[in-house]
Amino acid sequence: MCDINAVPVLVDVDPETLCIDPAKIEAAITPRTRAIIPVHLYHRLADLKAIAAIAKKHKLHLIEDCAHSHGSQWDGRGVGSHGVMGSFSFQSSKVMRSYEGGALITSNEDHYWKIVSQRSCGREFKPGVKVHSGNYRLTSLQAGLLRGQLAALRRNAPIFDRNGRALDAAVAAAPGVRPLARSPHITRQVGYCYVFLYDPDAFDGLPGSLFRQALSAELGWTFGTTYTPLNHSEVYYPHTKKRHHLSAVYRKAITPSRWKLPAAEALWKDRAIVSTWHLYGLAPARAGLLTEAIAKIYENRQELLKRS
Ligand SMILES: Cc1ncc(COP(=O)(O)O)c(C=O)c1O
Known about the structure:
By secondary structure, the protein is α+β, with helices and mostly antiparallel strands. The chain contains 8 helices and 10 strands.
């Protein structure tokens, strides 16, 4: 975003879903706001109904970041199609992958031709439509890989959804933890990571980091935490682009620490337990393993605290 001199305004997340909190969006809108970009993060979709209503009210574009949600549906319609544009990542860790690359989808023909130009060094594919750019083309080999995966996703998406629901039920049956809230509008959830919520108080103050360690040791799968909140992210340092000769006003506007994101910080520190999407491969009949492992940690929480 900083490549086009836009000012990203960070909005805190809903602690029950880890996606942008619609109740905090309107306070962040200024006369210069042009778009709302919700990320459908990990194991849930952002509240598209509420966000689309805000976008409409303020005449803003809605652009969905679907890097984590290939094949998910909101009210029976695929993510990425609810606003003017949707973006997908095919980087190597994603559910669909060509090892690097991505896709933008849009139902707006004007945007389409601009994107086609921008993808290919700013060349003119429709007379009069040129957008100065670099090379963002996907190779034919990558496209071939992805077409096969698209066919597989059609078959596998309902299985992801079924297994994800079983994991949620397994978490709901365990002490001191709970699944993320699932909106009834989510008609199909394909997640990138399986995530649930941890309550350190219920574990007599056992920090999230120790719970994650213990659960990883119990099950032999890795349980970690979320991405670092964007206000001190390891990949958001826009002010380091000195060659752009940023003005003092602009530098101040894009300085990430200007935002406070308490919900994202609490999740990152203690409250979110994040595994990879491979956990969705666990058949529902075996999801109880998760309940048992969490219950075992709960029973032994005092012992773990003593050792910490
Ligand atoms: C939520 C989210 N959005 C966007 C991206 C960017 O995708 P890419 O690495 O394909 O540019 C990522 C990458 O991991 C992501 O996790």
